[in-house]
Structures are given as structure tokens and as C-alpha cells.
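Run: sequence + adenosine monophosphate -> complex structure.
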Amino acid sequence: VPDILVVGSLAYDEVQTPFERRKDVLGGAASYFSVAASLYSKVHVVGVVGDDFQDSDIQRLGRRGIDTTGIEHRSGRSFRWFGRYDYDMSTAETLNTDLGVFGEWRPEVPDALRDAPFVFLANIHPEIQLDVLRQVRAPTLVAMDSMNYWMEHSRAAVAEVIKKAHVVSINEAEARQFAQTFSIIRAAREILALGPMALVVKRGEHGAMLFLRDGGIFWTPAYPLEKVQDPTGAGDAFAGGFVGHLSVTGRCDEDELRRAVVHGVVCGSFAVEGFSIDGLEAATPDAIDARYRALRAIVAVGADSVAGAGPIPGR
Ligand code: AMP
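>> structure
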């Protein structure tokens, strides 16, 4: 099965929800992505950590078969993020970001990883994403994420990354912000006009939408959950399931992309069931499969109806 390369943050997060608060939990876009994608394929992480980073957390990723040799160790503090959620458990309000060693880091993709066929550029400075794209050699599929901060401060560079990626995976608010419009449909058209084959618009508990350059549209709700403990990392887990599924099938036609979106939503559902990567760690390929089938049943409408086939049954 083809390998996946992810470049992104490895972090210690502090997370506050209306119900609970946790400190110093393993986070970072690359952590969430790699744990989700490791349910599908071999994953290689390129990232940076400081000397406060626990070996046990590197081993935690390693135990899942994730290649952690591309993680650089530098003296200084690891990236730290503090975010808060309201009762909707949806969009995080960033209370503090401490870049630490992540701030000055310029990733150097190890030579052996430059041929990875699947590449995920997690949320990071867009100039760094471009730098990574200059280092890899002809990947089959490049997917990228970004965030509001870069769209506001480095819009032209974000546009460059979008131009060079095959798949753009951003949330609803980011799509609106990037295209400076209320309409997601219009934002999708404008983003796809830059060149990517597909755009995924993540909508939290409302699921995800897929827009294709050739006009195709697909839309799924999220997997219905009663218990959401921590929404952090849902988007990166989504990307892990999405890219993971495509890496297994090796296909990128519309049906496969639709299935990949459902896999993404399923991985996101596991991520939000626990703090940190706990929820994702509890997921198994069988559990992924069961939720995939359940979600497919929710989206399906069955065969076309036959007009006048019979009376509506009484109660
Ligand atoms: P998500 O909830 O999918 O948007 O991802 C949340 C993760 O992204 C958290 O674990 C954070 O550590 C990480 N994160 C937050 N802000 C940044 C940033 N500016 N750059 C890179 N990673 C970030």
C-alpha cells in the first residue's frame, strides 16, 4: 500500500470545553492526521519538537506503525496551543499560541520520503507548504489544509498552495473568508478555479461537502454522536481518513472521492469522542467500517419511488 507523508505541527494542547478542561495533552495537526491515516496505510511524519516533548508520545505514534524518524528534535519548547469551545463544541477560539521551536522551523524532508505518493500539507505557514512541495518529487496526490490566520496575512501564498494541490480541505468559515463571500457554492467555484481537482468544505457536526472541478457535488452529514468530548483535531483526522482511503484504493474518480469524504467524516467522529488522540486510538478498521456503513445508509435514499404504487399506510 502506498505511503503517506504528512508535514505539520506536533503539539501540547490545552483544551477547554464547557464541561471539562485538560492541559498538556498530545495534539498538533500531524498527530491527529497520522493516527487516523495509520488505520489505512504506512504514514511518515515530518515535524519538530522541543526538549519538553515526551519520548512516550513519540512511541505512542510509533506503536501504530507511524514512522517518526522525520521528527526533528530541537532545544527549546514544543509548539503549544490553548483553545476553548462553546456549547456548540464547534469552532475553537484560540486563547494562546506559543510557537516555540515550530516558529523558526524550516522542514527538511528526508530524501527517502521525497518519493511518497501521498502528501498531506497540514495547517502551517503557506510558504513552508510551498517549500515542502519543492522538495517532494511528483506525488500522486497532494492534499492541503490551512487556517484563517494565513488567509488573512498571507493570502497570496495560500492561493499558490491551492494552485499546486490536488485536494483542498478547509472548513466552512475558511472557505467563506478566502473567497470573501457568504456563499459556499460561490467560494467553491472560486477556489476550484485556482486549479485543484477537489475542494472539501468541513462543516463540523454538519458533516462535509465535496466540490469537484468538473462540477460534481457530494454532501454528507457527520456521523451522529451523542457524546462529543473534544472537537480538537477533527479536521486533521478527517484528512487522515480521506487521504488514507485514497491511498488504499489508489483511485481518485468521483465515487472514490465521495467514499473518501465518508471515511474522513468517520475518522473525525472517533477523534471528537475523546481528548487528544484518545478517541482515534480506540478506533479499529472494523469500527471504521461499521460507521462507514451506517453513514452510507443514512445518506442513501434507496431505489426510486413508483408514483401511485399504493396508499400511505395509516398509523
Ligand atoms: P483542528 O481542530 O483539526 O483544526 O486542529 C487542531 C490542532 O491544530 C491542535 O492540536 C493544535 O495543536 C493545532 N494547531 C492550532 N493552531 C495551529 C497553528 N497555527 N499551526 C499549526 N498547528 C496548529
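>> summary
Residues 73 and 231 are 28 Å apart (CA to CA). The first strand starts at residue 4 and ends at 7.
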